Predict the structure of PLD phosphodiesterase domain-containing protein.
Amino acid sequence: MDKQAVNVVRIVQLAQKYRVESHIMRWAGILRFFAYAFPDGFTINDWNNFGMETVDKDIIHGFLHVLVDTDFITELQLVYKVVHDNELQRLLELADVVLRTQKTLYKVPESRMLWSIPIGTDVPTNIVSSFHYINSWIIETAQRATRRLLIVSPYYTESGMKVLEPTMLALLRNRPNVSMEFVVSDVAQEANAKAFRYLLDFVGHLHQKQIRVYQPSSVTNESLWFHAKFLVADGESGYLGSANFSKRALDDQFELGVSLSRSQAETLERLVDYWIQCGSLVQCGFL
């Protein structure tokens, strides 16, 4: 058995032992974020502060210890550093595929309840365990996109773009065929304009051709004035909920949402495509 196969088996065994099969791809998204957000390394406290982790710290330590043995992550005095991000993502994707085939052990639910909630909010543990965090789910879903990432919201902020920046940069750099498409109610609105100027600055000229921004053909057109917020990756998975793409909504206030099944994600993608094709949504010229 080659080294990669051994590593996959170890991750699968750890996930099955501690019943954390459904966490592997969420953790993959967190590690991809950390590769860019913490180039000098991260600690378990960074991990917990980012993901509001409900899994025991000892399990996280065990998971990271396995990854250190793969040489894709290094560790020095409990500071971990991702050194081979692409190889690490492929390894975790392989482990996830193996886990998904173990249908008696790991059945992916059609829908998951998602939330963001202020730290310190009093919620019983048995309720907390029923939710995944919106921020982590969005990052996990986005980093799986291979064809198209569609993000729809009436309101974006620069701080929200900063939350998503490492994931979007990794996606654009590693998958040059991916298009990243945003729908906004009014791109000229001050917060939206500032957010998209920031987006164009951080992606740079090299990747701007992968970015498209759409808005209603007339921002006063009541027939297509929307308040919906959702994200769809490749028409296969996604998020639908109350949170705008702002840091406050993703991290600091109470928001609710659900994950999307494949048929639901495909339907929302087709709906947006229809509005683009019939001219109800138009690409913003400033790009």
Remarks:
- Residues 104-108 have pLDDT under 50 and may be disordered.
- Residues 113-283 form a domain with the Endonuclease; Chain A fold (CATH 3.30.870.10).
- The first helix runs from residue 3 to 17.
- The two ends are 50 Å apart (CA to CA).
